[in-house]
Amino acid sequence: MSIRKAGGTWEPMLLGIEPRLCKVCKEGLYRNKTLFSGGWSRCALCEEFVHYSCLASGKVSFLKARPRLCKTCRLAEGGTPSSSPKAAIPVAVGS
Q1: Does a structural domain hold residue 25?
Q2: Dmax over Cα atoms in the chain, in whole Å?
Q3: How far is the C-alpha of 20 from the C-alpha of 74, rounded, in Å?
Q4: Residue 7: CB partners within 8 Å, gap ≥ 6?
Q5: 63 is in which domain, residue-wise?
């Protein structure tokens, strides 16, 4: 597909495809690179796409922690998985 410029020459109408970059390792999220290495996932904190290998590890090194956090977000929040205590919500008791 192409378009003719005013001067009579033809220019291709192909747009350059810009891949998303992994926030942790700054490499492209190409399918040919990530097909056999786990693909990619979205970080639950920063909502960025990262390689599966760039997610923070869980208790076992090859399993990933839940919620899915990238390594940079895990370091920023303190490095250890923390369970935030939920505030007690007062429940109205019937009269």
Answers
A1: no
A2: 85
A3: 21
A4: none
A5: 40-79
Q: Tokens 């979205």 appear where?
A: 42
* 50 beta partners: 41
pLDDT digits (tens, 9 = 90+) for 63-77: 888 899 999 999 998
Is residue 66 included in any domain, yes or no?
yes
Number of domains in the chain: 1
Over the stretch 12-48, which tens digit does the pLDDT of each residue have?
A: 666 566 778 888 998 888 776 666 667 888 899 998 8
Residue written as token pair 């303190």: 78
Residue 6 lies in a domain: no
Distance of CA 70 to the CA centre of its chain: 7
For residues 58 and 49, give the distance between their C-alpha atoms in angstroms, rounded to a whole number.
Answer: 19
